[in-house]
């Protein structure tokens, strides 16, 4: 049996909303979309779980927030590397100038 092409997300949402509104049954929707009732049930479950998470406000960081966190991590690493490099330069200068830690 040949598998029908995957339905776009917008079509799945339309089907799930129709079922939730009582406009059609799962069996009707499955028949019309040429998919199994189990597939329709999965779409409905995922839709409801995602909606629940959205209403609970427990979504993860947004794209911009992730981008800024990545930038902060990069800058923190660069700052650490610069601090190490500065220490090396200072020690090198102390050695060349003959300065000791006690003569500061």
UniProtKB/TrEMBL annotation:
Domain Insertion element IS150 protein InsJ-like helix-turn-helix: 11-60
GO molecular function: sequence-specific DNA binding
Domain of life assignment: Bacteria
Protein name: Putative transposase
Species annotation: Kitasatospora setae (strain ATCC 33774 / DSM 43861 / JCM 3304 / KCC A-0304 / NBRC 14216 / KM-6054)
Lineage: Bacteria, Bacillati, Actinomycetota, Actinomycetes, Kitasatosporales
């Amino acid at each position: 049996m040949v598998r029908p092409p995957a339905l776009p997300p917008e079509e799945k949402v339309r089907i799930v909303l129709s079922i939730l509104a009582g406009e059609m049954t799962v069996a009707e929707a499955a028949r019309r979309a040429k998919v199994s009732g189990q597939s329709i049930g999965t779409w409905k479950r995922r839709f409801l779980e995602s909606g629940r998470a959205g209403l609970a406000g427990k979504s993860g960081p947004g794209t911009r927030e992730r981008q800024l966190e990545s930038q902060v991590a990069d800058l923190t690493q660069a700052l650490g590397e610069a601090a190490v490099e500065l220490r090396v330069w200072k020690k090198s200068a102390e050695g060349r100038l003959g300065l000791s830690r006690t003569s500061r």
